[in-house]
Amino acid sequence: MPYKIDFVDGAVVEWSLTDDGATSERVSEYTPTFYVGVGEGDDESLEDARRTLEQFPTVARTRFEEWRPGFRREAERTLRVDCASIEAVTRLARWVHEWGDPGEFRCFNVDFSREFRYCLERGRSPTPARTPTTLSVEGRAHEFGDGEVPPLTVGGERVGRSPDAALPRVEEILDREDPDVLVADSGRLLAELRDLADRLGYDLRLGRRPGFQRLARESTYTSYGRVGHSPARYNVPGRVVIDRSNTFFYDETNVAGCIDLVERSGKPLQELSWASIGNVLTAIQIREALSRDVLVPWKAWRSERFKTTRQLHDADRGGFTFAPDAGVHEAVHELDFSSLYPNIICEYNVSPETVRCDCHADREDVPGLGYSICDERGYLPDVLRPLVDDRDDIKAQMREADDPERRTELEGRSAAIKWILVSCFGYQGFSNAKFGRIECHEAINAFAREILLDAKEALEDGGWRVVHGIVDSIWVTPREGVERESLDALAEEITADTGIRLEHEAEYDWVAFVPRRDSEVGALTKYFGSLAGADEYKYRGVECRQRSTPPFVADVQETLVETFDEYRSPEAVCDRLGRALKRLRAGSVDPEELVVEQRASKRADEYARSTRTVAAAERAGETGRDLSPGQKIGYVVADDSKRSRDRVRLVSEATTYDAEFYADALLRAAESVLSPVGWRRDDIARYLADRTDASLAAYSGS
After folding, report:
1. Residue 473 near residue 325 (C-beta atoms within 8 A)
2. pLDDT by residue (tens digit) across 514-526?
3. Would the pLDDT of 101 be above 90?
4. Do residues 548 and 598 lie in contact, with contact meaning Cβ atoms separated by under 8 Å?
5. Which residues make Cβ contacts (< 8 Å) with residue 419, sequence separation at least 6?
6. Cβ atoms 541, 675 nearer than 8 A
7. Quick one: angle between helices 187-199 and 163-177, nearest 10?
8. In which element (H, E) is residue 183 found?
9. Which residues contact 382 (CB under 8 A, 6 or more apart)?
10. pTM (2 decimals)?
11. Of all helices (H) and strands (E), which one includes residue 470?
């Protein structure tokens, strides 16, 4: 079972883990494959394509095979094309796609990542035979010079600043530890370390064999209107490289969670580490499709079925949300539907090939939309049911686990599955989803709205008042003067009615729903509260949960919530805020606690206005680091009255800060805490001013 596959000099090397280390096997004969099907043409067109493709030197062989081009299609004659190299697959498929009349040919199994493709086509499982060993490489890229290495640690050990000492030290630690996985702060760090060695003529070996590859260049992308940046990806022979600046699953889970997804998706660990949630979900779907003899379309194209104006209006809605009752509520209970969207898919057989099927066109199975759902089992429920059941089983094991290591492993596996389940619904409406369909997305939302409304009605009939509800969660508090049913009994009743388990998620001593800044209407996703029976608070949407909030501001806000919990007094909260402001204005806060992190959406010279992010990008450019669109940058605001690059300082050069800028941020954070009890920013500022005046008067009198 190879956990890593290297492509070197036209050959493939499989790396497998054993109790004694790692072993390798060279595979010289491997021909990746894609398929060609006939669109609007006929079998003669397919024969023409075969005769033409066989003339290409990059085509190893061709033959005809029977495959299904879709889940609701019977097997058809398709042309299998075995290519001489991985790189030839996309080039040949692009040529076929553009050859002939528009739509005449369709290509399948084209855009698979290369390690994933190899495992699929060779029938290899990339699940490691044992838990891989890891070694961290920590430091900042962009700071290398010929005469000096920036502060760098390998496996927690400092390697020195002199290249003559640092480079051999890096190799010594790698040889001694022989890790299976390198976890680097960034792939760029490894690349610059290697470049330094090359400039100095030192043959640095980071892998189990000589060599260093760049697998992909850095790139910028746009997703749902947000600009993102994908760093360059690198490879070293025999070891997995996990880039901390470009990994979702490793950061959100752990090694155990990643390996769980390796087994489910068939994507080897290195590819899984940089893959998106949708990428991994697609891999799971691809394996399911191929197990059913269904080919994977390269360029997905699905037309929408005709909809009436009423259907268009009703379908173009998301999950249901109740306007929160802004303010502080006592004795609140939060109830959540367990994995609502995945369970809707499984319970109601929602799948791209089952929604609005022709065989049940006269039925109206989807509430409010009138769509039919086929009785024949869809592929998507079969994909998700094992994930839902396994996560429920893992959560049950977590409740019983006493061993910390075992619990950490289970938490990682549970989190990994959770993210796949979270994304499975939205991915159905994604235009580039291999097997998605917008009507499937609409049907899931329609079921979710009906379920939440029915749950609200049942809870209110049972003597509870709903203070907020959003998509799959609902918050209730006891109604005064009425007889109440137990929440456990009501949850069981709702579960039986919907077929989806309603769980008691949390009990709060109190919850504060934050109003919008410009009105008294509650903000949909901003609240905080004190969990009953625990010295713990839950925060959602407020500043301490926002990634751009400086650590100092986030810490102060959490302290303000604790003060509110203890005293239930706006004045006490303001007094605590005043002490933080005094410390801030005295210059006693470490600038590293005031770092603002923002993502640049374009290059510095493309902005029309001089923002703080632009100033930070310009300063980074001065140090030789050009910021690409989508990349994040951290800075400290030094003087916000300026509009030049002197407005900010990069983290490495910050020694002072603009106290009033951060004081303003503290006031906003304090308003989020106190607005549920009616204190707005002006009230907070007035109280602080009065306290300051009183203190000065007392000082003068003495």
Report:
1. no
2. 999 888 899 989 9
3. no
4. yes
5. 248, 249, 252, 253, 277
6. no
7. 120
8. strand 181-184
9. 288
10. 0.87
11. strand 464-470
